[in-house]
Give the backbone structure.
Amino acid sequence: MKIAVCIKQVPTREWQPRLAEDKKWIQEQDVSYEMNEPDAYALEEALRLKEKHDCEVVVCSAGPTRVSQVIREGLARGADRGIHVESDDLKTADTFVVANALADSIRTERFDLVLTGLQSEDQGFGQTGVVLAELLGMTHATIIMEVQVSGGQVRVKRELENGWFQWVSLPTPALLTIQSGINQLRYATLKGIMASKKKELRK
């Protein structure tokens, strides 16, 4: 089984945004960045599936050169290889443009599962995963709290309103948007950091 995990690099939560002089974007000179937390939960779920089913996990991200840092972090946590869609234009792109960039780069890989976080912490649209599923022609489910894989099927637990949950079965290939809190995050070890330097990162 092959699993793609789409991750995004976002400004740290402690950083206070300030508008650039042209009023079109933020000042980026003093910004510090980190992995989008909902995407970290998606990565953790993929790594747990890898431990159960001997999967290949590929982290994918779109953005400027600095995004390779968050991909390397994903590799250090246990992903097998990375894909970086590199373009400065993508740092200010909308959901549809980013989803198209990711779709074009991973379509030929024929992944069985594509996981994303439910939403990003900077813009919070919650749409990139859904649009990506449509572009890839995959079945999809959102707000996932549990994932079970068996044969060519995936069974997922969706979070609904007022404490209700829904179990849904989907054929693979499928795309799932993962809810924060689905699992307990692991962090990169020194061994993982050293190993990540030798892993493939395709641009």
In short: Helices lie at 37-53, 68-77, 95-106, 128-136, 190-196. The longest strand covers residues 139-150. The chain has five helices and eleven strands. The CA atoms of residues 63 and 90 lie 5 Å apart.
